[in-house]
């Protein structure tokens, strides 16, 4: 275990070795010489952190090269260096004067990857997360390494990430705990006369002081009987008034970089009838689908059951993302998305996953949202958040 005072929650050597052994089995099973992957930020950069316990940050790419018979090589921007004591399972770290907003600098970064592959004589290379790999890197590799075969092993790595170890679940429960603390503090923070952004800022300070590594929050307010939506930061300048209600979505990572998310409605005074009714539908819909988090169930069944339930009561269906797994990434597989002819989730629910379920109902007179994380066991799902699911009356 790294004990350097600068790291709030290092992952243990034992856990990292568990991951590396599992990844090397993917290499062996697919007859690969190495796997490469990229990340550029904290909240959707889980591949690189899963392999290294080093986060990619600030939209600077970090490339990980994981060979079958050696330690890793990491390539990063020279603007964001990693201290030597933080490197575990890393044989070499190379830096390039790279910045993604300076397009021409991609050549220096990509040349290091090409050099690495040539020096190892690799012929079959796996990659994962093609949505994260830069176009420039992939085009360069294909052009300069014509004899190399590239194999997509995203499904295999996604499966490994989805199945949480005991150590990972300790981290996720700690993240859920600081979410719960923020909800407990909301009544002491949110007051009429504040802007939505000011409420958000005080919650961010609290969560940061409790060990959160990154904070994403949506907050929207409105008078009763008017939809408030869930505005992002740019649109959170409304002044809250007496009698208003609102929606707050907290999506923060805890110590160690693991994400949970939670959401509740709040109201300054008693909520109007439409709001109270819709919020209860959210609670009931979440319970319906949480009861379906059982091993072997196709993810598509979850969102299908949700949409049938809420539409039968006259509310809007979820057309995007009803729920998903979480971990180092804010959104991980399996994802509970509506059926799409261009492609659907193929991963089934299994014991060991930690999934978020978030019913969202909005129309002309209200917006309601509830969100919690559930740990899947052989006997069903356990809600890991402890804060009550009732609407918060301020």
Q: Name the CATH superfamily classification of the largest domain.
A: Creatinase/methionine aminopeptidase superfamily
Instruction: Classify the helix fraction into a percent range.
Output: 25-40%
Strand content: 15-25%
CATH topology label of the largest domain:
Creatine Amidinohydrolase
Number of domains: 2
Q: How many strands in all?
A: 17
CATH class label of the largest domain: Alpha Beta
Question: Which architecture name of the largest domain does CATH use?
Answer: Alpha-Beta Complex
What are the segments in which pLDDT stays under 50 over at least 5 consecutive residues?
A: none
Give short descriptive properties of this protein:
Creatine Amidinohydrolase, Chain A, domain 1; alpha+beta; 394 residues; six-stranded mixed beta sheet; five-stranded antiparallel beta sheet; 2 domains; 9 helices; 23% strand; Creatine Amidinohydrolase
Give your account of this protein's structure.
It is a single chain. This protein has 394 residues and is an alpha+beta fold. It folds into two domains: 13-162, Creatinase/prolidase N-terminal domain (Creatine Amidinohydrolase, Chain A, domain 1); 166-393, Alpha-Beta Complex (Creatine Amidinohydrolase), CATH 3.90.230. The chain is 32% helix and 23% strand. The chain is built from nine helices and 17 strands. The strands form four sheets. A six-stranded mixed sheet has the order 4-3-2-1-5-6, with helices on both faces. It has a five-stranded antiparallel sheet with strand order 11-10-12-15-16. The protein has a four-stranded mixed sheet with strand order 7-8-9-17, covered by helices on one side. β5, α4 and β6 (149-152) form a beta-alpha-beta unit.
């Amino acid at each position: 275990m790294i004990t350097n005072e600068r790291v709030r929650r290092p992952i243990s050597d034992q856990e990292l070795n568990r991951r590396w052994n599992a990844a090397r089995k993917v290499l062996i099973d697919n007859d690969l010489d190495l796997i490469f992957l990229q990340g550029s930020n904290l909240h959707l950069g889980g591949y690189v952190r899963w392999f290294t316990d080093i986060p990619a940050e600030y939209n600077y790419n970090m490339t990980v090269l994981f060979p079958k018979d050696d330690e890793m090589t990491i390539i990063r921007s020279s603007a964001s260096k990693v201290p030597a004591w933080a490197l575990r399972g890393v044989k070499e770290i190379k830096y390039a004067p790279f910045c993604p907003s300076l397009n021409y600098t991609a050549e220096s970064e990509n040349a290091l990857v090409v050099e690495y592959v040539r020096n190892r004589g690799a012929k079959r290379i796996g990659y994962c997360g093609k949505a994260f790999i830069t176009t420039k890197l992939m085009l360069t590799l294909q052009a300069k390494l014509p004899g190399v075969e590239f194999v997509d092993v995203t499904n295999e790595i996604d499966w490994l990430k989805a199945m949480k170890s005991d150590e990972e679940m300790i981290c996720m429960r700690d993240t859920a705990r600081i979410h719960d603390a923020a909800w407990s503090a909301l009544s002491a923070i949110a007051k009429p006369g504040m802007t939505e952004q000011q409420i958000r800022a005080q919650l961010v300070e609290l969560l940061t002081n409790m060990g959160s590594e990154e904070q994403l929050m949506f907050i929207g307010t409105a008078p009763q009987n008017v939809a408030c939506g869930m505005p992002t930061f740019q649109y959170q300048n409304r002044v809250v008034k007496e009698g208003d209600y609102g929606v707050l979505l907290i999506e923060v990572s805890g110590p160690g970089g693991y994400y949970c998310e939670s959401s509740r409605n709040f109201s300054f005074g008693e909520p109007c009838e439409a709001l109270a009714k819709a919020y209860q539908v959210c609670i009931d819909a979440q319970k319906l689908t949480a009861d379906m988090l059982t091993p072997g169930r196709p993810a598509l069944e979850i969102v299908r059951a949700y949409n049938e339930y809420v539409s039968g009561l006259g509310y809007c269906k979820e057309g995007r993302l009803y729920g998903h797994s979480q971990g180092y990434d804010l959104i991980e597989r399996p994802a509970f998305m509506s059926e799409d002819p261009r492609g659907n989730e193929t991963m089934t629910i299994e014991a060991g996953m930690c999934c978020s379920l978030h019913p969202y109902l909005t129309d002309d007179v209200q917006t309601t949202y509830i969100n919690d994380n559930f740990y899947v066991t052989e006997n069903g799902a356990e809600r890991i958040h402890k804060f009550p699911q009732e609407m918060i009356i301020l």
